[in-house]
Write a structure and sequence with these properties.
single chain, 285 residues, alpha/beta, Rossmann fold, 9-stranded mixed β-sheet, two-stranded parallel ribbon, 6 helices, 13 strands, 20% helix, globular
Length: 285
């Protein structure tokens, strides 16, 4: 499978783009950048009305057309632009994934100071040295996981909770593990506030997966181990998909599929994630 090309707007220097704990190198291209968020459309001019011969000589005008109906959410236009320019343009086409990305209010998953940039083509810091993933990476990993309604999904690396919300929008029952307790606590509260009650957040060590809830139809990992943890392999259901970055230094995003006792593996794109680390083995859910 040929690697996907990840690009940024012309005129910007190449930069590394982090995921929840990841980043992908962006190469400059000739595509013009997205319009500035919040730009206003040009004013609508009223059309002149033809003169009626029996009417007074004073010209009259039609009232200007009624303004277009406001979007369902004030940031909806930004989400739609994000999907068109950052996600579909790079080859993510699953309509269910695109719909999920359009529904989740990404700006709620970043600190207030960064909300104006929430739909931009790069990750954003969420505290504790962690970032919310670049939108494209979230969409790509979600598409690769091929989650169907009613399936049980494990996410290793909750971060802000954004990826878990996207998975929940696909109709999955999501179990997500975060090694940093403050992030786990904050994500749990926000997901509950937004109505994602099918997401269960656990503070714990993702290396061991979540054996009490296994098997999983899909597992999505957002930090890179040097090799695939065996615990995650064995917690896959028959036909389950594991989407995971693997390696130190040079890393690759892989999809591992289980068929009975056999596992097939394919490489998707080169990536660079922060290392996956062990937490305190005594952590409780």
């Amino acid at each position: 499978m040929r690697p996907r090309t990840v690009t940024q707007s012309a005129g910007r220097a190449p930069r590394w783009v982090l995921g929840v704990s990841s980043f992908v190198m962006l190469a400059a291209c000739d595509r013009p950048g997205p319009e500035a968020a919040g730009s206003k459309p040009p004013p609508i001019r009223g059309e002149s009305e033809p003169m009626d011969q029996d009417a007074p000589s004073k010209n009259t005008r039609k009232p200007p057309p009624a303004p277009a109906e406001a979007p369902a959410h004030p940031r909806q236009a930004e989400r739609e632009r994000m999907i068109a320019e950052q996600i579909e343009a790079r080859g993510v086409t699953d309509p269910r994934v695109l719909t999920a990305m359009a529904k989740v209010p990404r700006h709620r998953f970043v600190p207030e100071a960064y909300q104006a940039e929430a739909y931009a083509d790069h990750p954003l810091p969420i505290g504790h040295g962690v970032t919310i993933s670049q939108p494209y990476i979230v969409a790509l990993m979600t598409e690769l996981a091929d989650v169907q309604p009613g399936e049980k999904v494990l996410e290793v690396g909750t971060g802000s909770g954004y990826q878990a919300a996207i998975l929940a929008e696909l109709g999955a029952r999501v179990y997500t593990i975060e090694v940093l307790e403050p992030l786990a606590t904050k994500a749990r509260a926000l997901l509950h506030e937004l109505g994602y009650d099918r997401v269960v957040v656990r503070h714990g060590d993702g290396y061991g997966g979540w054996p009490e809830q296994a098997p999983f139809d899909a597992i999505v990992v957002t930090a890179a181990p040097p090799k695939v943890p065996e615990a995650l392999r064995v917690q896959l259901a028959d036909g389950g998909r594991l989407v995971i970055p693997v390696g130190r230094g040079a890393q690759e995003l892989k999809v591992i599929t289980r068929r009975g006792d056999r596992f097939s593996e394919r490489t998707v794109i080169p990536v660079r994630f922060v290392p996956m680390v062990h937490g305190d083995p005594g952590m409780e859910p």
